[in-house]
């Protein structure tokens, strides 16, 4: 991106910028998830020491929510190759012996 010729090829520059944004979003999401997990771990340790069951249940629910966020990012990682950001249309037609 720093080279003088980078912006001359519009298609390539858009492609590179799009990839850069995807990778930045994924790494930022990972860093946020790690930070949230550390905070939840600290909160859970305090709740265990104080034997505060409602806070422990809340921490458990937050961990489940965080796990769902991480799973979504995992899917984004799997679907990050060149053609994965393109739209797709599917049409299904009943074949021989099917009902319509």
The H-and-E topology, N to C, reads as HH
Give the termini distance in whole angstroms. 54 Å
Mean pLDDT: 84
Strand content: under 5%
Shape annotation: flat
**Number of β-strand runs:** 0
User: Could you name the ranges where pLDDT drops below 50 across 5 or more consecutive residues?
Assistant: none
Question: Given the structure, what is the number of helices?
Answer: 2
Cα Rg: 22 Å
SS content category = mainly alpha
Portion in helices = 55-70%
Instruction: Sketch the major β-sheet.
Output: none
What's a quick, concise take on this entry?
The chain is mainly alpha-helical.
Would you kindly provide a written description of the structure presented here, covering whatever features stand out?
The chain has 100 residues and is mostly helical. The protein has helices spanning 10-50, 53-78. The radius of gyration is 22 Å and the shape is flat. The N and C termini lie far apart (54 Å). The model has no long low-confidence stretch (mean pLDDT 84).
